Amino acid sequence: xxxxxxxxxxxxxxxxxxxxxxxxxxxxxxxxxxxxxxxxxxxxxxxxxxxxxxxxxxxxxxxxxxxxxxxxxxxxxxxxxxxxxxxxxxxxxxxxxxxxxxxxxxxxxxxxxxxxxxxxxxxxxxxxxxxxxxxxxxxxxxxxxxxxxxxxxxxxxxxxxxxxxxxxxxxxxxxxxxxxxxxxxxxxxxxxxxxxxxxxxxxxxxxxxxxxxxxxxxxxxxxxxxxxxxxxxxxxxxxxxxxxxxxx
Length: 248
Description:
- By secondary structure, this protein is mostly helical.
- Helices cover 69% and strands 0% of the residues.
- 17% of the residues are buried.
- The mean pLDDT is 87.
């Protein structure tokens, strides 16, 4: 179950960030510059930072039209925490009138409050450990986001570590549960590694600008390689389900 949850975290990010990038690129072709919607959120060292990098257009809307009008952090610490929790609860309800979405928002709101109480978002030591902790926290919250009903989420949580005493079998079973066969292990591994490298580089440089500065032959070579990969994956995944975030 843990493997399933981790792969869902990767899926929803690639899904949502991917079609946001498609929208950005299409708009730029028409001479329209839209705001960046994702900035390597899974490499955040705090939940607070995660929400500054995840679905930026929506999170800034909630900040400007819900959190700040409620008083933000201007009316004392207790009121600040209440405003934070209310904002995230409403964010959950925005995704759907479902208790599981409400709990998802509550988890993120409480996470931010705990960070602020213990000043965890100011501690920048052990960055890799912090990134791992934040990723697992977000992954845990995604369980409620994905579940159709709350009981499903609690079932996944209760059975998450079943069989983990045999790590190899546990991992294989997790891969089989999400439909990944052995023949695809290398392809999936390379894809995830490529994503991690791209996200890490994006923390320090804009990969698209760096590519645009390359000589024409190299630049177009990269374009053709990426285009070919996209076409191959389109045929390979023909008939797959729609975007996870399509319903929102």
